[in-house]
Description:
The chain is mainly alpha-helical. It is built from 10 helices and 2 strands.
Amino acid sequence: MKGLTNNQLKIIALVTMTLDHIGAYLFPSVLWLRLVGRLAFPIFAYMIAEGCRHTRSLGKYFATMAVFAFVVQGVDFLARGSLYMSILVTFTLSISLVWLFQKAEKTKNPLWAILLVLWLAGVDFICRMLPKLLPGFQVDYGLIGVLIPWGLYLVKNKKYRLLLLAVFLAALALDSYYVQWYALLAVPLLALYNGQRGKRNLKWLFYIYYPAHLVAIYGISFLL
């Protein structure tokens, strides 16, 4: 089948993410590593939306992401005293919004809609206000980063979904630094997505690889 599968896009994201983190922690003066690394987040965000759309249990999907996020943040805090929330936290918040939206949509119970609005306000507080109150605290990619997978989940048409992603990424770049504009290069790659998972189930690859590659990079940085 023509195009790129879910697995192939995730591998591209893993490789570019690794190069980005190598650039950030080991070779900060090597700009091209950070530029290539801009491809990772849009691809992962798109695939989080796909995961929410196709998972058999959104509750389990949320719980898995939340557990790994909690473990990674706990280790990072103990090791470095860091309050910077990783991309796992960002995606946990994204999935929580999708989960509440699904509940409101399926049950037609206004209580779920109210909870969604309240939690959306809570996410806004966590992403935009809490960093002002708690020095060092920041959610990776901020509020826009949290909203991207949710927005992509809501839009069913692929062309409009890619257009929305491009708008989100432009907004993120305007709110960040110029390097972030290179994230738009992920949109043509995602246009090649054929909607297929691929032959192998790589469900646990990202969950395991993410903390493992950070431990390796942190370890090397301490030796240099």
